[in-house]
Amino acid sequence: MEMKSENACFGGVQGVYTHASQATGKDMTFGLFLPAEAKDGPVPVLWFLSGLTCTHENAMTKAGAQGWAAEQGIALVFPDTSPRGDGVADDNAFDMGQGAGFYVNATEKPWAPHFQMWDYVAEELPALIGSEFAVDLDRQSITGHSMGGHGALTLAMGLPGRFRSVSAFSPICNPSRSDWGRKQFTGYLGADEQKWASHDASLLMTERGFEGPLLVDTGTKDQFLDLLMPETLAQAAAARRQQAILRMQPGYDHSYFFISTFMEDHVSFHAESLYAG
Amino acid sequence: MEMKSENACFGGVQGVYTHASQATGKDMTFGLFLPAEAKDGPVPVLWFLSGLTCTHENAMTKAGAQGWAAEQGIALVFPDTSPRGDGVADDNAFDMGQGAGFYVNATEKPWAPHFQMWDYVAEELPALIGSEFAVDLDRQSITGHSMGGHGALTLAMGLPGRFRSVSAFSPICNPSRSDWGRKQFTGYLGADEQKWASHDASLLMTERGFEGPLLVDTGTKDQFLDLLMPETLAQAAAARRQQAILRMQPGYDHSYFFISTFMEDHVSFHAESLYAG
Fold first, then answer.
1. Out of A158, A203, B45, B59, which could bridge B75 as a Cys pair, Cβ 3.0 to 4.6 Å?
2. What share of chain A is helix, strand, coil (3-state, %, to 5)?
3. What span, in angstroms and rounded, lies between the C-alpha atoms of B262 and A10?
4. For residue A183, how many other CB atoms are within 10 A of its CB?
5. What ipTM is given for this predicted complex?
6. Shortest CA distance to A44 belongs to which of A67, A70, A74?
């Protein structure tokens, strides 16, 4: 693992690290914020999964999360959204290929060799940060934006017991029925829609839900609302009486200005679970 | 004036606008955050002047200022750092020409036709936002980063009575004696160093000071400390017993991670003056 940069930030350290990833077969870069408390021992950790076109850097510089995480003594992890570099398949569309891994393990050509983002985020990166940094893997929560909100929801429901709480900013809620999903799942997972179900938050909500608190914020002026379909997740959550706070925020769009506005709420929300019991 | 974007943000609106500037003879773009209170009437305004290579956008997306400004009911203005576009002189160095206006009115070729950033920030842009938006020009304060910290300090001292308070993050404090200053002042203002004095914060502090509170934060690990020379400003402020809070922040560098860490302090500091009396 190579340290790319470390900057003092809210009493802690915002680092950027690169490592050779087994899951993706490429070097991967991630951001990690450690609060001051990490000097004294392992701290709880909140994952932030980013959206289409993002790298590890966007949320790290624009989401305004570190201040609230510092206040709560929580670490933040900012993974990249796909493998990158020589020999990694790509697509001309911004919503497919590099920058658009959708947090799945691709089974289809040409994606399968490197696009193993589920394994990377669910297994390899947690193991790495658990061994290299003072983070407590028994206290993890997860959030994300847009495609990363989809990732947060599907990882949280797909890995029962892993995360104490889950939240999302303007997540893609029903990718099996959205143009942000059908093309990508067809490409990465193949045409058999049954294989998509474990990567669709609304279907997972209907089938199994999440054992813990859920918070979702979406803007009423989000320019991608028809692709996100927050109503589908809301209906599924309502049907199973899922513990949940689902908010449509008046006037807000899909931008980081929206994310930063509600970041304090999300970090506080996760802190409650991360420090419970 | 043309609206380029408006995003809901912390209950207010983060806008970006372009206008034909008389001072610079080019179209200029600026960011303006208006808190919710601006719907009911004019609000106080805090200027944020940015550093080398920045546009209006960097601080607007990375400084984390809007949340604190919203809490205080204060507007934020993010001007660009130079004229840009066809026919505007430039230099291959990142610290000269476009993105590096140094908040002066250039008198020398080839800069003089467009590099009139003092007039732009001191006169034209305030008049524009005062006429187009609900901001109260009787309640203005100013801050900035690096070259923009230099701009904030020199504008505050150079325009007595204009700003109620001034602060800066890692400002260039003594450009007449720094490689971040001598080259630029020679280019923009000519070789006569007497003409530089009104754009040197340490000389202004010695000569006249600032009638109001001053706050400066600089990181002890700032990679540009020898160019910034915070000690020179500190010595000048001490000599005249200037009302001031001058802080060297342990471990912090020159980045936006540093700025965002102390942004709450700076906005609160200005709010005290903006809401006094």
1. B45
2. 35, 25, 40
3. 8
4. 16
5. 0.90
6. A74
CA nearest A57 in B: which residue? Answer: B62
DSSP collapsed to 3 states, B151-193: HHHHHHHHCCCCEEEEEEECCCCCHHHCCCCHHHHHHHHCCCH
Predicted pLDDT of residue B22: 98
Nearest to A219 among B8, B260, B264 (CB): B8
For chains A and B, CB pairs below 8 A equal 67
> A129-148 pLDDT, tens per residue?
999 999 999 999 999 999 99
Fill in the DSSP letter of residue A197: G
Residues 6+ apart with CB under 8 A from B231: none
Contacting residues for B260 by C-beta, under 8 A, at least 6 apart: A9, A10, A64, A66, A67, B62, B63, B64
In this model, does residue B277 exceed pLDDT 90?
no
Question: Distances in Å between the alpha carbon of A50 and those of A31, A58, A78, B213?
Answer: 12, 8, 8, 41
Distance, CA of A198 to CA of A217 (rounded, Å): 22
Q: Report residue B64 as tokens.
A: 């984390």
Q: CA–CA separation, B265 vs B247, rounded Å? A: 12
Tens of pLDDT, residues B143-200: 999 999 999 999 999 999 999 999 999 999 999 999 999 999 999 999 999 999 999 9
Whether residue B111 contacts residue B104, with contact meaning beta carbons closer than 8 Å, is answered with: no
Report the gap between the CA of A220 and the closest CA in chain B (Å). 11
pLDDT band at A277 (very low <50, low <70, confident <90, very high): confident
Q: Is the dihedral of CA A27, A33, A38, A43 positive or negative?
A: negative
Question: What is the separation, in whole angstroms, between the first and last Cα of chain B?
Answer: 34
* Contact residues on chain A for B61, CB-CB shorter than 8 A: 61-62, 256
User: In terms of C-beta density within 10 A (0-12 exposed, 13-18 middle, 19 or more buried), how is residue A100 classed?
Assistant: buried
Beta bridge partners of A229: none
Per the document, the length of chain A is: 277
Each residue of A200-245: pLDDT tens digit?
A: 999 999 999 999 999 999 999 999 999 999 999 999 999 999 999 9
pLDDT in tens, A146-163: 999 999 999 999 999 999
Give Dmax over CA atoms of chain A in angstroms: 50
For testing contact with chain A, the best of B261, B263, B265 (most A CBs within 10 A):
B261
Q: Quote the mean pLDDT of chain A.
A: 98
Residue position matching structure tokens 């049954």: A194
CB-based contact B7 A258, cutoff 8 Å = yes
CA distance B120 to B106: 12
B64·A258 Cβ contact <8 A: no
Using one digit for the tens of pLDDT, what is the confidence trace for B35-64?
A: 999 999 999 999 999 999 999 999 999 999
Please compute, for residue B110, the number of CA atoms within 13 A of its CA located in the half-sphere on the CB side: 9
- Nearest CA-CA partner of B14 in B4, B22, B23: B4
